[in-house]
Write a structure and sequence with these properties.
The chain has 202 residues and is mostly helical. The chain contains 9 helices and no strands.
C-alpha cells in the first residue's frame, strides 16, 4: 500500500491555484492592452500590436481569445464593467457630483470609441451583438442615472435629464467622428455637459 502524502497534495493544490491566478492576471493585462490599442487604432488593429502592448507573445493572446471577435467582445464586457464600477468610485472620490459625472462621461467616451467597431467585428452574430447591447444598457444606465441624480440634488445641473437620453446623445456625437481630424467629439460632449449646469454653478 502506498502512503498518503498530504504535503505533496497541498503543494499541488497551491500550484494549481497559482497557475489559475496567473491566467486571470494575464487575461486582465491582455484586456487592458487591447482596450488601449482599440481606442487608438480601432478593433481591426493587428493582434501583434496588442500582444506587444501587453508584453506577451501572440500565442498567449490566442490561447485566451481564439478569434478577434472573442477578444472584441471580452474587451467590450471588460469596459462596461469598468464604467459601471467607476461611477460609485468617482462619486466617493471627486470633489463634487458634477466633477464625478464629467469624469465618468470621459470614460464612457473612451468606451464608445471601442464599441463603434463591435458591429463590424461581430457581423456574423447579430444575436450576440443585441445581447451585449442589452447588457450595456442594464449595467450603465443606472450608473449614469445615479450620477445625474446626485448632481441635480446638489444643485449643480438642471433636473430632468434622463440617463438613456444623455448616453444616446453622447453616442451620437462620438459616432460622428469617423476619420475626420477636424471633428472633436470630446469638445462637443464637454459643451453638452456644460449645458446641463445650473447658472449658479457655471
Amino acid at each position: 500500500m502506498g502512503c498518503a502524502c498530504p504535503a505533496a497534495s497541498v503543494t499541488r493544490g497551491a500550484s494549481a491555484r497559482s497557475t489559475r491566478a496567473d491566467a486571470v492576471r494575464n487575461r486582465q493585462v491582455l484586456l487592458d492592452a487591447a482596450a488601449e490599442v482599440f481606442v487608438a487604432s480601432g478593433v481591426d488593429a493587428p493582434i501583434r500590436e496588442i500582444a506587444a502592448k501587453a508584453g506577451f507573445g501572440m500565442g498567449t493572446v490566442y490561447r485566451h481569445f481564439p478569434t478577434r471577435a472573442d477578444l472584441v467582445v471580452a474587451v467590450y464586457r471588460h469596459q462596461v464593467e469598468a464604467c459601471a464600477e467607476a461611477g460609485p468610485a468617482l462619486l466617493a472620490a471627486a470633489g463634487s457630483p458634477f466633477t464625478a459625472l464629467h469624469r465618468w462621461v470621459g470614460l464612457f467616451v473612451d468606451f464608445l470609441v471601442t464599441k463603434h467597431g463591435l458591429a463590424h467585428a461581430m457581423r456574423s452574430d447579430s444575436g450576440g451583438f443585441e445581447a451585449l447591447h442589452a447588457y450595456f444598457l442594464d449595467r450603465l444606465v443606472p450608473v449614469c442615472e445615479e450620477l445625474l441624480d446626485r448632481a441635480a440634488d446638489a444643485g449643480q445641473i438642471e433636473p430632468g435629464t434622463q440617463a438613456y437620453e444623455l448616453m444616446r446623445g453622447i453616442g451620437n456625437l462620438c459616432a460622428g467622428q469617423g476619420d475626420d481630424p477636424r471633428y472633436d467629439p470630446r469638445r462637443l460632449v464637454g459643451l453638452l455637459l456644460q449645458g446641463l449646469r445650473q447658472p449658479k454653478s457655471a
